[in-house]
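Notebook entry, structure prediction.
Reason for the run: the old model in the group folder had no record of what sequence produced it. Starting over properly, with the input documented here first.
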Amino acid sequence: MIGAGPQLVRTSTPTARATYFGGEVALDLMVWPTRRFGLWVEPSYEFTFHPSGVSHGIGITGGLLIGWWRQRAGPSRHREEDAG
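New structure, fully documented this time:
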C-alpha cells in the first residue's frame, strides 16, 4: 500500500515552542511466509516547512503480524423431517 498526506509537527524545547506543517509519504509492505505469522515493514519519507527552510527525514517502522481466523465449516446439511 502507498500512503501520502499532510502532517502537523509540534516542537517543544526549554526555550521555544513552535508548530510546523509538512507532509509524509509511506509505503506499507507485508509478507506472510506462513498462514499464522508475517512481517510488516513501512519505509517513509517526510518533509517539514520551517521559517529557515525545509527539513527532510527518512524512517522505517516494522513489526510482526499474527493472523488467526476460524476454519470454515463444510456445507451445512439440513435434515428433512417426515411430514408424517
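Summary: The domain at 2-66 is CATH 2.20.200 (Outer membrane efflux proteins (OEP)).
The old model has been moved to the deprecated folder.
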